[in-house]
Design a protein that fits this description.
Strands 1, 2, 3, 4, 5, 6, 7 and 8 form an eight-stranded mixed beta sheet that branches. The chain has five helices and eight strands. The protein has two domains: 8-64; 72-208, Alpha-Beta Complex (Nucleoside Triphosphate Pyrophosphohydrolase). Helix 2 packs across helix 3. Helix content is 36%, strand content 28%. The longest helix is centred in the first third of the chain and has 21 residues, at 30-50. It is of the alpha+beta class. The N and C termini lie close together (11 Å).
Length: 209
């Protein structure tokens, strides 16, 4: 099980950001709001100090978050054809992943994964089963936020494989021929192994962290 533990500085920054966001939401006066706003800036400064990200844009993203802080949700579609798994190559970093993305506010998770597979791979699919719920994070500007990943088994019901604005290649691969490199945290070997295990055993229980 190849769980990747975030570095401590990122865990601290995430916790400070989440506490400050929640504190700002429940602040009763301007003094409390200013204190929590400064904590958001400190969280951004910690991350900027450890990465090549700039403090200003990070602080702006943090201060735009409102309400009680909770993890974001990412979905991935595990689509099989003749025992092979659908993978797409991300235009952003050249890595391979199961198609998917962030769930929009108001979306049902199953609808979100069906939409993402269509947009990224050109296939109309029906989500049929939940493979797993994972504590996971994405690469890119939003990697600083905590995230949960939902992987769904999906049936191919229409369309034909094609690339998109987000992907450069779309193809099916056997478990022993999964292409590398994988695209950051979007899809890890663990997610692929669980997807193959789920399609091989219809009675297999959903895995979770």
């Amino acid at each position: 099980m190849d769980l990747i533990k975030p570095p401590r500085w990122l865990e601290w920054a995430r916790e400070i950001q989440a506490l400050a966001q929640t504190g700002h939401h429940y602040a009763e006066n301007e003094y409390q709001r200013q204190r929590n706003h400064r904590l958001l800036e400190i969280a951004a400064e910690i991350i900027a100090d450890q990465t090549n990200l700039e403090v200003g844009p990070l602080a702006d993203v943090f201060t735009q978050q409102i309400g009680y802080a909770t993890p974001r949700v990412d979905v991935r579609g595990a689509v099989f054809h003749e025992g092979r798994l659908l993978m797409v190559r991300e235009r952003q970093d050249g890595g391979w992943t199961m198609p998917g993305g962030w769930v929009d506010v108001g979306d049902r998770p199953s609808y979100a994964v069906e939409r993402e597979v269509w947009e990224e791979a050109g296939l109309k699919v029906k989500a049929t089963r939940l493979v797993g719920v994972y504590d996971a994070n994405r690469v890119g500007p939003l990697e600083v936020f905590h995230a949960f990943k939902l992987v769904f088994l999906c049936d191919w019901i229409g369309g034909e494989p094609r690339s998109s604005d987000e992907t450069t290649e779309v193809s099916f691969f056997g478990q022993e021929n999964i292409p590398l490199p994988l695209s950051g945290e979007r899809t890890l070997p663990r997610h692929i192994a669980d997807a193959f295990a789920a399609v091989a055993n219809p009675q297999r229980l959903t895995v979770f962290d």
